């Protein structure tokens, strides 16, 4: 997935200096961003209040949108480096193409995981014909320095393991939850899980106290540790938790995101994660000149042009503002 902001800002993220080392309840509001021709997303990370949760560095929530008479998601070929993209759907389909030759339709509750490593490009679009509704989340995971130049690859997992309890099903998207591990490749200790709650459910989800966590509200109305969360919002939970109380009076959908606090400082701009301003500039030059990131074949349209780099020098601000 792409950050289509035409005035993308250089941002320094990571480091443990601002990690909340105790349980908190910090509600994050989204910023609305246009994605492609007809999809508006609610951007939760990076946020004015918080830039990362573990290695999770970018979170967009979109839908549910009625696209019966529209083209739906149409994101032209664009580059990535230094990160993994995670496509997660509750409704609809997304057709993934990349410069490795991958062609895959991702459907609800299936994992589309692309590891960019040193360089890759891809496109995402609603198939033709497509389902009436589109609803999901697009996320990035920052790669640690030791693995950020791995060979790019794409994984699709249609069947994922789940943790169950009365009224609760937690599908493990990435990492490990309560001893259950996703087949998706990870490079840092983290977890991503899709939580379905049925009406009149009260449950306690086991957590790792060394991880920091956040909950993304996808649908319905639920309470997380006593805090009401509505769709399109994110509740940052800090760390030091061994369990998380959940409550739903009606059916609700949540995403749990967590991981060990990311020690390294990273530079994130547009669709790149690097370690320095010069590295980001070089990546932009390589994309603009048509080198390094390869070619996405089969998409009906030109690749996405890179926005101009900001004229101001890069400033380190840590994990929160």
UniProtKB/TrEMBL annotation:
**Cofactor binding mode, per the note?**
Binds 1 Fe cation per subunit.
Q: Which UniProt keywords apply?
A: Iron, Metal-binding
InterPro entries attached here? Pirin, Pirin_C_dom, Pirin_N_dom, RmlC-like_jellyroll, RmlC_Cupin_sf
Q: Where is this region: Disordered?
A: 291-321
Against CDD domains, the record matches this protein to: cupin_pirin_C (cd02247)
Q: Which residues form the Pirin C-terminal domain?
A: 193-291
Q: Where is the Pirin N-terminal domain?
A: 41-141
Example of a GO MF term: metal ion binding
The record's section on Pfam families has: Pirin (PF02678), Pirin_C (PF05726)
Spell out the Pro residues composition-biased ranges: 302-313
Q: Identify the cofactor(s).
A: Fe cation
Mind telling me which PANTHER family this protein's record contains?
Answer: PIRIN, PIRIN-RELATED
Which family, according to UniProt? Belongs to the pirin family.
Question: Any idea what this protein is called?
Answer: Pirin family protein
This chain's source organism reads Streptomyces liangshanensis
